[in-house]
Amino acid sequence: MNTYKVTSPITLKDTQTKVVIADAKKKLKHTRRELGALQDTIYAHGKYAILICIQGMDTAGKDSLIREVFKDFNVRGVEVHSFKVPTELELKHDYLWRHYIALPARGKFGVFNRTHYENVLVTRVHPGYIMGENIPGIDSVNAIDDVFWEKRFEQINNFEKHVAENGTLIFKFFLNLSKDEQKFRLLRRLNKKEKNWKFSAGDLKERKLWDDYQKCYEEAINKTSKPHAPWYTIPADDKPSARLIVAQILLDALKQYDDIKEPELDDETKANLNLYKAQLEGE
């Protein structure tokens, strides 16, 4: 699965958007069961936190991927955060604040559905949004130059390095959807009554900015894929295969940590197991 890890600069137009894996749904059931069992061990071990960041264009399949990949997780060990437009309170803090307070505790999985990267994606395509952050020295859109964005990339890299050095394992997945497949999925939302609620006229406005978004994604991925926080570009045109690829990447990577194991009982408890059993059986 290292095929999808970004270890050198990429060009998105040259990366795959569709891979079809035979029996992907069946294979996913097996993989997510293994992942769920490993989650129990990680929870008991309590040493590592797991942060999973999922980005992608509208209709890339983020919600359904989260639902299917983590279906066999114990709910006490996983938290999903979907980041929308910043609230009034969030805008009174720096842009990373709301992401920092949502980080998973050790022993838990945290899934970010849209992430801190929105701050170098949506805001870069729509720089006017930055004005809502009320940043000192940024008095107009004209002040948002290349130096500003370079600082943001540096801040994001420092943020991820800091949390990684303190016990968080980071996985970043870009669901790489083709423009043709997005068109198909948007039409399906319009054609199926039960899918209508998912459609917004804003989706079409954003679709017109496809090339701008692709350029921003490409630069963000290239500037922030690090050994401690790698990006994976996941072909997203076939949803079952995309889900399996993500699940398998997580499982393979986490199994490499041979120090993740269930904690042993302390010596006193271990020595008195038979006594405790006798007490219970004698009730």
Automatic annotation (TrEMBL):
InterPro entries tied to this protein: P-loop_NTPase, Polyphosphate_phosphotransfera, PPK2-rel_1, PPK2-related
Molecular function GO terms recorded: polyphosphate kinase activity
Keyword Hydrolase belongs to the record: no
Pfam family, one: PPK2
UniProt keyword annotation of Transferase present: yes
Domain called Polyphosphate kinase-2-related: residue spans: 23-258
Name of this chain's protein: Polyphosphate kinase 2 family protein
Similarity annotation: Belongs to the polyphosphate kinase 2 (PPK2) family. Class I subfamily.
Keywords recorded for this protein, A-Z: Kinase, Transferase
GO biological process, one term: polyphosphate metabolic process
